[in-house]
Automatic annotation (TrEMBL):
Keywords of this entry: Membrane, Transmembrane, Transmembrane helix
Name of this chain's protein: Uncharacterized protein
Record organism: Rubritalea profundi
Transmembrane helix as UniProt keyword: yes
Transmembrane segments: 36-53, 73-93, 105-124, 144-165
Amino acid sequence: MNNQSSSHSLTQLIPALCRGDHALLSEWLTLSPKKMFIRTVPCVVVGCAPYGFSMGLWRGAEMGMYVAIKLPLLIFCTLLVNGLINGLLAAVLDSGITMRQSLQFLLAGFATMSIVLGALSPISQALALHAPAANADHARDFHAFILLFHTAVVAYAGILSHHTLRRFLLHFSKKKSAANSTFFA
């Protein structure tokens, strides 16, 4: 990847995040947090908003819009809390990872998760558009299937992002045992 961060477009950033590119994260760690957020926040919004819309679409377009707004906000709130907890654990376990780095690692992981969710949102939207009406006889069974589908998709995206996060922790930590303890805590 090009070392000049201003030359990265979203189309270059997405594949690098999905690969778990260490050069990308190393570059981010040298950037100011503001520049790093400018790089990753669009990934979270672009990925989570369409998936959120598809989650709420079964109940109507208005609900889809509410969830499209709510899901990225929920991700950012979760990021803040997890970043603080992981940063404190990293300090206690003497991993050499700072609070800022912890937040950046998690933001990269959430950006990866969001990209995966965004990529799977057309499938989710197709399910919602082909769903029976909410008051139909077999709507309850279909609703159960949709809930199971969303659970599986979010779990899949979460596993991929956690894999990326763990690789970052192992790469940048002073001790592998501290990185593993921070990750699994």
